[in-house]
Write a structure and sequence with these properties.
Layout: H1 7-30, H2 46-58, H3 77-89, H4 98-111, H5 114-126, E1 131-134, E2 150-154, E3 157-164, E4 175-181, E5 192-198, E6 204-209, E7 218-229, E8 233-234, H6 240-255, H7 259-274, E9 276-277, E10 280-281, H8 286-314, H9 322-345, H10 363-370, H11 381-391
Parallel strand pairs: 1-4
Antiparallel strand pairs: 2-3, 3-7, 4-5, 5-8, 6-7, 9-10
Helix pairs in contact: 1-3, 4-5, 4-6, 6-9, 7-8, 7-9, 8-9, 9-10, 9-11
Length: 398
């Protein structure tokens, strides 16, 4: 693996740094930095993230991995990695509409008609239409193909009834990429279709789910005879599983993005160097130092694993199960990072945001709970292990 960047890639980095130097300070005058920006769908920082997204879009920095003909920059994989590293390194907030940009957009580009591309792609880039993902159900989370939300074709509309759950950001979304069963007699992977649904359609109800952190990022979504135009069918009728695979592949890679994790690992190391313990600082404790070293090593190994995935793609090789490997490793390392912070702080780690004496404004109490989400989000740890066991290790199905 060659770790050197080409002149084109270094030029891309210089252009991005120059744009950030001109624009990020202006954004920060109105929206100061906040830890809420680094959660995935923060209510408190939504306006700030939306404003930053609009600024990025005006500068041509949204959807850089999309082909140029669809409004992207046609950025290479290495340029995408440079973008993520520079953005986080500069302290830039995330934009909004990540489901639209990283999952829905690529699915529409690959499976959509020309009319669908013209209709849906521009407002995804501009965040004029924000998306959610209607896949999981109460009885079909890890076994997604077991879904029961159904749609019946009546004339020029599908009539949808059923329920979805764990639908991130549904309460703020304009549209939903939805998996439904359209042929109940077919094998479960063969009778599924994908619809693009307006969240304001009559018959839809969104109910927020309060999480262990007190936030309500996820939602239940109910469909009661919701009419969806036939023109909103993405891909072939009963061919929705192919669309789902495209979406899930991008989802697991997005969740496995290690840049934010590295930022938090660095913050934990800095916390250990200044937090008092036994007349010195926490970083002098040999047991804690070992835990911190392990987190740092795993974080670096995770980054290298991501680079191996990029190298495969640069060689033109077909994507493999690397998304599941990265998702598994990311989940484990993020949890260890949060646990290391609780070891550093001791009982003080329980102080919540806003509590007097809370370290770093209560950041670590929140992270200790927030880290638990990754064992479920984007496919449970157990399912990812099955994928790795069967597709990489060649183990028989359990």
């Amino acid at each position: 693996m060659d770790f050197a960047y080409s002149e084109r890639e270094e030029g891309f980095r210089r252009e991005l740094r120059g744009w950030l130097a001109r624009n990020l300070p202006e954004h920060r005058k109105q929206f100061p930095p906040s830890d809420d920006e680094l959660t995935f769908h923060p209510d408190k920082s939504f306006d700030a993230s939306l404003a930053w997204h609009k600024r990025l879009h005006a500068g041509g920095w949204v959807g850089i991995h999309w082909p140029k003909e669809f409004g992207g920059r046609g950025a290479s994989l290495l340029e995408q990695m440079i973008f993520a590293e520079e953005m986080i390194g500069a302290g830039g907030p995330p934009g909004v509409n990540m489901i639209g940009l990283t999952m829905v957009g690529p699915a529409v580009i690959r499976h959509g008609t020309e009319e669908q591309k013209a209709r849906w792609l521009p407002p995804i880039l501009s965040a004029d239409e924000i998306w959610c993902q209607g896949f999981s159900e109460p009885g079909a989370g890890s076994d997604l193909a077991n879904l029961s939300t159904h749609a019946v074709l009546e004339g020029n509309h599908f009539v949808v009834s059923g329920q979805k759950v764990w639908t991130s950001n549904a309460h703020r979304s304009h549209s939903c990429i939805l998996l439904v069963r359209t042929d109940p007699q077919a094998p479960k992977h063969k009778g599924i279709s994908c619809l693009l649904v307006d969240m304001k359609s009559p018959g839809m109800t969104v109910r927020p789910l309060v999480q262990i952190t007190g936030d309500a990022e996820f939602n239940e979504v109910f469909f009661d005879q919701v009419r969806v135009p036939k023109a909103n069918l993405l891909g072939a009728l009963n061919g929705g599983w192919d669309v789902a695979i495209t979406v899930l592949m991008h989802e697991r890679m997005a969740i496995g993005n290690t840049v934010i994790l590295h930022q938090y690992i660095n913050r934990v190391l800095e916390l250990a160097r200044r937090w008092p313990r036994d007349g010195g600082v926490a970083s002098a404790d040999p047991v804690l130092r070992q835990a911190l070293a392990q987190v740092y090593i795993e974080g670096r190994a995770l980054r290298l694993t991501g680079l191996r995935y990029i190298t495969r793609q640069l060689r033109g090789e077909a994507p493999g199960p690397e998304g599941s490997v990265l998702k598994l490793a990311f989940t484990d390392t993020y949890k260890k990072m949060a646990e290391a912070a609780t070891q550093i702080l001791g009982p003080a780690h329980q102080l919540w945001r806003g509590a007097p004496g809370a370290a770093d404004g209560g950041r670590w109490a929140f992270q200790a709970l927030f880290a638990l989400r990754f064992g479920i989000a984007g496919g449970t740890t157990e399912i990812q292990k099955n994928i790795v066991g069967e597709r990489i290790l060649g183990l028989p199905k359990g």
